[in-house]
Each structure stands twice: as structure tokens, then as C-alpha cells.
Amino acid sequence: MAAQTELLAPALMSRSDVPVFPPVALSAEAAPFTPLGTDGWRLGSPSDVEKQFSRCAAKLRALRADSGQLREELNLLFDQLLSENYNKTFDPNINIRPEDVCTLLKHVSCLVPLSQEHLVIKLCQLVHHLLNQLKVIMDERTLDVLVNYTAGALKVCSTWTHSDVLLALSTIVYGNGPQCHQHLNDLLGEDGVLLLYSSPSQPNMELRRVALTCMANICLRIPGQPPLDDQYRSVSFRVFLKTLQSPKPPNTDELFYCMVIQAALKGLQCCLSGGKWKFGGGEEVGSVLAALKRLLFQGTPGVSVEWPAVLYPSPLPQYEGLSASKPVEPPKPIESQKDAAVPGKTSGNKKRKSKGKGKKTSTEESRGDDGEEDDRDPVPELQKGGGREGGRGEVESLSKPSGPSLYPSWKKTSSDSEFSDPEGSAQSKLRLYHGRVRQGALHCLLAVVKAVEKRTLYGYWSSFIPDSPVGGLPPLTLLTIIRKDPSPKVRASALQVLSAMLDGSRQFLAVAEDTASPRTSYTPFSFSLATSVRELHRALSLALLAETSPQTLTQVIKCLAYLVANAPYHRLRPGLLSPLWKQMRPYVRHRDVNVRVSVLTLYGALVTTQAPLPEVQLLLRQPEVSSSTGSFTPQDSALSWRQRDGVSSPSRTPVKPSLQSSHAHSPHIPRTPGEEDTAPPWLLQLCVLLVTQPREDQSDSEGAGTGGGAALEPSPVRLEALQVMSHLVRGYFSLAQACLCEIGQVSARCLGETDPSIQLHGAKLLEELGTGIIQQYRPENNVPESLRVPISQVVLFWSEVLSGPLNGALQNEQHPTLQTSACDTLPSILPQAFAQLPEKMQLMCITVLLGLTYSENYLVKTAAVRALGVYILFPCLREDVMFVADTANTILAALDDRSPNVRAKAAWSLGNLTDTLIVNMESVGVDFQEELSDMLLLKMLQAATRASADKDRVKSNAVRALGNLLHFLRQSQLSRSAFQRPLEDAVLALVKTVQSEATMKVRWNACYALGNAFRNPALPLDSAPWSCDAFSSLCHVVTSCKNFKVRIKSAAALAVPAKRGCYGDLKQFSCVWRSLATALENSEDTNDFLEYRYSASLRHTLSQALLHLLSVSQSQDMPALGTSLAGEEGRGIKEHLIKYLRAEEGGGEGADGEKDAVGDSFTPQQRVGGLQETLIRLKELKAEGEEWGEEERGKEVVVNFLEDLLKTCEGP
Predict the structure, then answer these.
(1) What share of the chain is helix, strand, coil (3-state, %, to 5)?
(2) According to its UniProt record, what is one Pfam family this protein matches (predicted)?
């Protein structure tokens, strides 16, 4: 009444009391009208609430425990504080300092003794009121004081107060569980008060609910804070799970029970969020999933099922047995019956309960509201849950997938809202609470999906995603909720769970295949998985047709995008993507911007998955069809704000006549095949329009243009359209290349805008275009010249781009990400086209890149260094000594950068630069070597040596550069004293890397680098002290390394030296031979099945290396060779050499796209010819010295061995 009196007071004032208002001129700039109170203060001013709080807080702080009227004063001040609304959503200008609240609560807790239980309750209510509404983050002292007080109240005060005390405690510990460690034993210990009150045996449901809420808030983890101790998390987890598994106590109100379940679900979600699963093995996972699956259908009409207590992982479907409910009398003459939604096959040893048979001819089924497992007759529960639900359209068909059943009950009601009951009856409230339970169960299931390992979760897919062919009674799965649940929020949550399950499932779904007919005796797992994919397509497509809520519709389309991104369509029968492609077209014009964005995301997934996919290629080639003749959705009539056929209105400015003409083409006029091939894909046209053209309808609130100008599409739509264009160019460049210039214009336009995000995506689109052109010109792709983009057109394209707004993006230091992306476009220029660009543009590109390597931002520097590493390979630049020197100095500076990303790219670029040195040495000759500075080469050698001790991603390219540099150095340089120590350090760095525990890629690159160094005839392999270490490391690796690719590279390196002297003395040569022979003998010994694919290549390389050693061997080597070839070892070697000599193809596999060190491209005839030459040379060898007799005997054995080998190979 006080509030009413205050509101009526102004009306009773006399005219003299009315405040005088200053005159205000009428204008658009005038301040909005705000009524004044009697004292001149603006009504609703934050000062009112703050004044009241400050006044009461000051009085409370002035009170002392020995005050005479303490109890009355506390009562009055508590009531005044509790009467205020501190919620900032009500008034965002409320500014009460958190420290003032903390000081107040600490002081008041000292004034209220635990014996005054009514005051204790009011204080607890005040704590909850202030902390909850003001979102106060307490300091450690306040937290300790309040937890101590409430914990003491729970021990001392009567039970009737505990509900309010626990509510206050739950607010205090919200997100502060780890900080309350000294009180956790009292709360969650063996006899803890929270365990007592949260027990399923607790009769007081309100106490049980608040205790569970308190436990949930203790388990809640705030990002950046440590998690709760595992001991207490596990205790809480078991309590929450036990609560979910326990049946509803008898004589308990359904609403209270739903609130308890909601609290337990929230707690379980808090236990699982922010970390991996830590609550036992598969049994616990199965128990949680079983409990959650039961709650997913809480209150769903007609579902009365015997739910299993545990779900077990299995590749086969696990069905629940059906416990049928008696039919409920319908209020209207609509034929209805009990639910028959699930198959009758039971899970485990559970028997099916049957309490009557339903009518088989009915197509509509009434659904009860109680989904609890109960042995009693379900009729009272159904009546309690609203037996007349059929009259409100809550009837459902779960068995017939066609006809009226495509539109579930929520499509037939007059309102889509959960609050649609105008009377606010108990039934409406119960439906609301049931919906919240289902939504909470889905949120919890989402936390489980994120916490449990994907591999573990795959075993439970059949419990949530149907994997049986359509037909018969469908099981209760997530798809049932998505299609049938009356709440749009619940449907959206189910779609989020399904999306999380599909996300990252590509490796699991890759097994799916149904291109071949399955055997009739059993159904392969691959076929079952393919059936799941098809069922997901079917169900989500039907959900798409029926959905009316824009938010849920967005989730449906996003879920389809996850499915498309992970399903293996190249292993499935074609036809899944075509209906989806056509069904999505009308939604591009949907009024809701989020729906439009999600549609573009789905199209992006369609053109990305396993690109190029033949089915998608056909869809892209199809001419655009008007919506009136194509697919049609129930919402299509409301989507007419963009013209249905996509034709630009006269008010729109066309991007290019070629695109405009393709839009205006009538769908009724047939096109010739040539026209269809050269016409731009419909999706590309659409994206160009969305990015560049203004919207036709400015009525919706998506940022319509002001000042009479036409507004473009909202930024999210334009960004997604640009991404789709990038995906399209990357996967289907042959279709997009017809619009090369138009796409370039779109990119240029985006780069010229002010929005950095649009500029960034425009630059990425340019990069994809350039990469697509480069891929066409790669020899290994075998693209006919007639189908490539002509060089002249590529030159024109890049001339326009480089003279456009790209320069501005390259120099935009305010947005380093944009600068980085713009920098990434420069190395995507086709090298042949770069050579034909004007010299001014070439210099501009080089100068900009060299300058950007000095940027303070590591992203920009990384991109610039990488770009230089690409440019150094361009034929028109690599012979320019000045450019090579400038690039080398820039890379050397970047190798010392503090950022590991910059150093990694600098090492990669240094590897490319040294590759260029080798190419120039072979093509240009000594002239290039002499022009390059010795001092620069020395710096490069020393920098690469230092980098070889860096992280693995730096090291892998540093050793590659070392191998090239050691190959490049001339005799005049190696003989200089300045090079002696760096040379030794470089070789020893390679040796150390070969023998290290680094990643295999680093080790095989180091082996390749040693082989590359051995190619340099100027290296003193016969006399240098490091030579023995180099050969020993390779011999050790070729026999002992578990990785076969490392063995292949080491064997190839051992076969590189062209002269016998390079192998050192007899002992070292014999060591190399024995190592290769042992490696060949053990070439199939491995415990890793994945290595077997390289075993043939390893034997090929080892055989080649052994023959190479024979070809350079001298007379002093014959005794050792003869001993090896004469025994059992020789017979094994002979078998492998026969296979090698007869093999049609070379075996060696390159690392990082490099050729093998030996480079085996010989035919069998050439190999036999080389063996004959070796045999002739060995026959001509003359034994010398004291050991000539032994040498002759060894020579005879070797010659006989080779002759037998030749006879075998030359024979039939």
C-alpha cells in the first residue's frame, strides 16, 4: 500500500506545488521526456536505489551487538533492503560497489546470533538477494566469513530454517568451490549436510532441491580458476547420478520432482564441463547416458518405456522394450491410441511388459505426459498429466513417416510458444517444467559428448542415432526429439547435441559404405553406418520442412552442415546431396539473417566435402530454376523479400554483364551443352549478388541503410558468402574459372571497403584464386592446356589486382591480420605470369615483402618470410644474384627472431633458397657460384647449423638447408680456414640429428641431407675426421630405426659416394656393406603394421645400394665381400637382388616431395646392363700386395655370385 500511496501522491498536490518545467523547443534533438518526482528527482533514477542502500548500510554499520533495540532495527533495515530491486537488467545505471556489499554482509553477520532464527532467515535472504542481483564477486575474507556463518547455521539452527540457509550458501559458493576447501569436508564429507539433504531418501523435496543446487554451484568451474578437487567432484557426481536414476517418490508433486531433477542435471553438467571424463570406465558412461536418455523424453505424451539402467557400447542397435499404456479417451472424434513408437526388441535380459494391445489401423496416437518407469497402472498418471491433450492437438504419429505425420503436434497448434496456454493452468505449467527437464538433460548430454573421448562415444551412437533401415516402428532417438518435441528450445538443444556428435566424426563415418549390395546373411557395420547417414539426411530434411522457429531452423541447417562435412559421400550411393541442395534454395531468401548465414554455411560444406565430388559438380552445372518450379517450403510465401528467381531489379547495379545475363536467362529455354559448361555456377552468382548488391527489402531490422541509400546485406551474410566463394574456387576451380575477372572484381571491391573482416575475406578469396591457377599449371595435375586459364588472362588479372586496393591492405598496420592475409596473396601469383608482369609491379611486390619482414607483428613477418621463400623459387628471380643475396640476408635475420613461427618459416624459406642454389649450380654453372659472396655462404652455413638445434619444426628445414649448402660449396671455399670449423660443425649437427630422438620427419630429412652433402666431390670424405661419424650414424640408423622411411633415406645416402675412396678404409667399407646386408635381411621385421607399406621400397633401395657398393669396390674389399656372399647371407641377398633387377618400377619414396637421393628411374634392362659393367670391371681387377691370394679367392666368389645372378635374370 505504501507504494500505491506514493504513486497517488502527485495527483493530490496543489497547483502551487507543481514543479516548473523549463520550455523546450520541439525538435528531433530534444531529450526524451522523463517525469519528475515531488522532490524534483527523476523517477526511477539509480540514486533512489543507491540512496536507500547507502542509508540502510550506514545504519546497519552503526549498530552494535549490545544495542538496545537491535532486533527491531535489524528487522526493519533488512525489510527495507529486501524491498529494493537491484537487478541491473531492470536499471542498468545502478552502481553499488561490490566492496560496500561485502563490508555490509561481513558486519551484519556479526550482529545476528544463530539463536535468533527469524533474523538468520532474513539475513540469508538478504545475502541471496544482494549477491544474486548485483552479481558481486566476493573477496576471500568475505567468502570465508559468510561460508562460516551459513555452515554454522546449518549445524545450530532448526531444520525449518535450512532451506533459506542453503539457498544463501548456494549463492555464496557459486563458482567458489575450490576456495571453500576448509569447509568442503563438513558439506560433502561422509556425513556432510549436503549429502544428507540431497539423498533420494530425503522427504522434503525443497530441501533436496536446494542442497542439489548448492552442490552444483560448488562444482561449477569459472574459466581461469582451478577445478574442484577430484574427490569432491566424484562424490557430487555420484549424488547427481543417483538422483537421476531414482524413481519419483510416492505422493510427490510432479512439479517439485521436476525441480529436483533440474538441479541434479545442472549439477551433473557442472561436474562434466571444462574437462575430460574422470568418473570411472564404460559402466559409468553407460549409466549416465541411460539416465539422460530416459529424461530426454520426460513428460512426452504417450512414451511409457522400460528404460535400461545402463547403455552398453555396441555396433548394433540397442532398443528399449515397450510398456504400452492404456488408451486415453479422446475429447474429439479423432481416432487415437497408445504410443507404439519403439520396437519391441528388449535390451539385455529385460522382458517386454505388455498391458494391452493397441489398434493397428490408427494413424494418430495420444501421448501421455509421464515418462517415468513405474510398475503401476499408467492411467492415473496420464490423466494427471492431462488426459485431454488430444483436444489441444498434442496427438502424434511416430510410426508413419509420410502424409500428415510430417507435421508434428507443435505445427498444428495455434501458437509455437511454450507459454501458449492463456489460462496459465497447472497443465501448462507442468508441460513447461517437463520441457525444462528435457532441455536440461540435453545440455547435460552435450557436456558428456564434449567430455568423453570420441572413440568411446562412437559405441553409443546407436542409442541416440537410428542405424536401421526406415520401416516398422522407429526407436526413440535424438531424431525423435528433433522432429516431435513440442518445445522449440528442446528441439534446438537436441540439434546442438547431434551437431556435437557429428563434429569431428569424419574418421568414424569414413567406414560407411553402401555402394555395393550387402550380403543377405548379415548386415556389415559399414552398411549400418551408411544407413545411419541416410536416416540422418531423411529426418533432418523432414525437420527442415516442418520447423517454424527461426532459431531452431538455424540449428537444423547447422546440423546438416556438420553432417555434410563429415559424411563420406564418395563411398555412398549418389542422390543424398541433390535433394538437400534444392531444398535449401528458398531459405537463402529467409527473413532471419541467422538462417541465411547457416544456409550459406551448409552450401560451403557441400562444396568442400571430398571436393571435387561428381554429384556436386552436376549440381553446380545445372542452370538456375525458379522457385515456382523447384522446391517449395511452407514458409516460402513469407520469403518473397528477395526476388524468387534471383533476377536483379533495375535498381540494382550489375557486377558484370556476363553474370547479369546468366541471371536473366529463362529457365524454360533449353541451353546447349556448351552454354551450360561455360555459364557461371548458380551458387557463385548468388554469392556475388549477396556480397555486392543492395538488399531489396529494408523493412527488417538488420541494419537497413539510412539517409535513403540502399543497404548491403548484413556483414555475417556477406562474410559467409565470401567463404563459400573461396570454398568453391578451391574445390571446383574448373567451374569457377569462367568468372575469374568477376571474382577478382569482387575481391577488389571487398579490399576497398572499410570493414576489416570483409577486407580479410576478400584477400583470402584472391589467394584461393591464385592457388587454383597455380594448381592448373602443375605438371603432375595433367590439366590440358586448352582447359587452363591462359597466361595472358592471368597476367591481366594480377595487373588489375596489384594496381588496385591490395596495396592499401599490405600497408594497413592497424589490422595485422588483414596485412598478413594480403601478404599471403603475393606468393599465389603464377610464376610464369609474374615474369610477364611490368617490371614496376615486380619490384613493388619484392620491395613490399622485404619491408614487411621487419614488421613488429609476428604474423605479418611470418607471412612475408614465407612469401620470399616462394619467390626465391621463381625462375625469373632465382638467377638474380642481388635478389638472392637480399632474400638470404632477410631470412638470416628472421632465423634469430624470438617467435618460433617466424623461425620455422625462415628455416623453410632458407631450405627453398638453398634448393635454388643447387638448381643454379646445375643450370648456370660456376659463374653463379663465383658471384655469390663467400661471407654470405658462411653466414648461411652457421645460421643453419644453429637452427638445427632449434625446435623440430625449425630443425626439419634447417638440416635440409645444411645438406644443400654442403653440396654447393666449392673446393676454393672448403680449403679456406674460415670454413673449416663451420664445415665440421655442420656435418656433426647432421650426424647428431640422425641419431637423435627427434620426430621421424626431422631424421629422414637429416639422412637425405647427408646424402646430398656426399654428392659434392670437393668434400674430403676420404680424409676428414668427421667422415667416420657420418657413415657410422647412417649405418646405425639403417639397421635399427623403427621407421622404414628413415631407413630408406639412410640407405639411399650410403649409396651416393661415386668413388671407392669416399668410403674410407677397408674397415669402414666393410661396415657399410654389413649394415646394408643386415638391413636387407631384416627388412620385413617390424611390429608396426603401418611400416609394411614401405617394406618393398626399403628392399628396393637397399638392393640398389648393395649393387652400388659392388660397382665401386676394389681388390682389397674382395675377401670381406666374398665371405658375405658365400654363405646363407649371400643366398638371401641374391633373392632380393633378383626381385630388384626384374622390378618394373622404382621403389624409393621421397620425403617432402623430394626425389630419392639415388633417383632410381632405370628400367630392368638398364639395371642388368649396369650389373654386366660391374662384372666386367671386377674381372679385370688385379690383386696386389701380400694378401693377393685371399683377394683372388674373394674375387672369384663375388664374380661367380654376379654371374649366377645375371643368368637367373636373363633366363626365362
Answers:
(1) 65, 0, 35
(2) DUF4042
